[in-house]
């Protein structure tokens, strides 16, 4: 009899713990039927600095006034009052279509790589809030480029991963000059193009690169398919060299409608929270039937050992993806 009571108590405690966990997750989600609490930001990136999270992105496909940022101490809730333009039109290159920023710190300064007029530029600030100020010339002048990602390798060289248009969207890498004024033209090299079946459901598109180096391997995270497709999804490839060749993971896609239940999952960035846990911030479609405005979400990311002794596998916890709350008056 005592044994039965003991198991009953353990079962009740387990139910309480499960309930508490559900409450915790629910508090990190917005009510999808209450549009006033949605945070809409496509192509997002997050930079954690001095106890704050800075969320940047494309807040409108026709963003003609600059790059917007939200500031919060929470990973789930931001305030409309904390939003402002970190980069304003007129302070740097570009007159229209400000997209896909990435924030990067080097030698005590903050840099924003971003897209305007379908060209990539870099602006500089002393604070992640901005204002980011830059020159009036793009990094690559002779062709259109989008989706920048700056990567500094162990040897101190800085590389620009980016997307070029040539029979579809393709990911390239080029070495940046030390003063970040442009690329060395003879280093511009193709990394990936749409190839696998899951990458070609709608259009020949591979874009949104993020690059990590882990245990001597380069990990190139990318999105595939047209962003309007509900099958827009994320995969990754690995290489021993920053220039490739790149081998796709057998686990691809690692973020998709099949894993999350949400349409249009993709084009995000890796970041680390205050405890140095790894996350991936990304966007989804507004709903199953509507593309925009696109919603901002995040999911936990981690490496696990490959059972066959190969490079560690990169995994996104798709089942626990969360959307960001947007509150008024915080």
Briefly say what this structure is.
The protein is mostly beta strands and 330 residues long. It has helices at 2-27, 257-260; strands at residues 42-49, 52-58, 66-72, 77-79, 84-88, 99-106, 109-116, 119-125, 133-134, 145-152, 158-165, 169-175, 189-192, 206-214, 217-224, 233-239, 247-248, 266-272, 278-284, 295-304, 313-316, 322-323, 325-327.
Please tag this protein with its features.
Tachylectin-2, Chain A, 330 residues, 2 domains, single chain, disordered N terminus, mainly beta, 5-stranded antiparallel beta sheet, 4-stranded antiparallel beta sheet, 9% helix
Structure characterization notes:
The structure is a single chain. By secondary structure, the protein is mainly beta. It folds into 2 domains: 1-30; 34-327, 5 Propeller (Tachylectin-2, Chain A), CATH 2.115.10. 9% of the residues lie in helices and 43% in strands. The protein has helices spanning 2-27, 257-260, and strands at residues 42-49, 52-58, 66-72, 77-79, 84-88, 99-106, 109-116, 119-125, 133-134, 145-152, 158-165, 169-175, 189-192, 206-214, 217-224, 233-239, 247-248, 266-272, 278-284, 295-304, 313-316, 322-323, 325-327. The strands form 6 sheets. Strands 18, 19, 20, 21 and 22 form a 5-stranded antiparallel β-sheet that branches. A 4-stranded antiparallel β-sheet has the order 1-2-3-5, with no helix packed on it. A 4-stranded antiparallel β-sheet has the order 6-7-8-9, with no helix packed on it. The longest helix has 26 residues, at 2-27. The protein is globular. The protein starts with a helix and ends with a strand.
């Amino acid at each position: 009899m005592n044994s039965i009571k003991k198991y009953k108590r353990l079962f009740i405690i387990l139910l309480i713990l499960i309930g508490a966990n559900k409450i915790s997750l629910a508090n990190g989600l917005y009510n999808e039927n209450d549009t006033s609490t949605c945070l809409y930001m496509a192509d997002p990136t997050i930079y954690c600095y001095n106890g704050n999270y800075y969320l940047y992105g494309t807040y409108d496909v026709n963003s003609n006034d600059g790059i917007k940022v939200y500031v919060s101490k929470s990973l789930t809730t931001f305030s409309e009052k904390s939003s402002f333009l970190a980069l304003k039109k007129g302070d740097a290159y570009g007159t229209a279509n400000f997209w896909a920023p990435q924030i990067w710190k080097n030698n005590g300064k903050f840099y924003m790589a971003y897209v305007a007029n379908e060209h990539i530029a870099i602006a500089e600030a002393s604070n992640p809030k901005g204002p980011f100020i830059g020159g009036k010339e793009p990094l690559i002048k002779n062709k259109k480029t989008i989706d920048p990602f700056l990567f500094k390798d162990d040897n101190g060289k800085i590389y620009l991963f980016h997307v070029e248009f040539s029979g579809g969207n393709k990911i390239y890498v080029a070495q940046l000059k030390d003063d970040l004024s442009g690329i060395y033209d003879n280093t511009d090299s193709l990394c990936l193009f749409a190839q696998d079946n899951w990458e070609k459901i709608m259009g020949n598109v591979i874009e949104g690169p993020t690059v990590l180096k882990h245990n001597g391997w380069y990990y190139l995270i990318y999105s595939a398919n047209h962003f309007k497709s509900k099958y827009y999804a994320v995969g990754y490839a690995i290489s021993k060299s920053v220039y490739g060749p790149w081998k796709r993971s057998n686990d691809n896609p690692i973020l998709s409608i099949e894993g999350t239940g949400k349409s249009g999952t993709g084009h995000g960035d890796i970041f680390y929270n205050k405890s140095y846990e790894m996350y991936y911030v990304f966007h989804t479609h507004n709903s199953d039937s509507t593309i925009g405005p696109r919603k901002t979400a995040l999911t936990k990311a981690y490496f696990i050992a490959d059972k066959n002794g190969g490079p560690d596998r990169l995994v996104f916890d798709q089942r626990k993806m969360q959307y960001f709350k947007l509150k008024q008056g915080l």
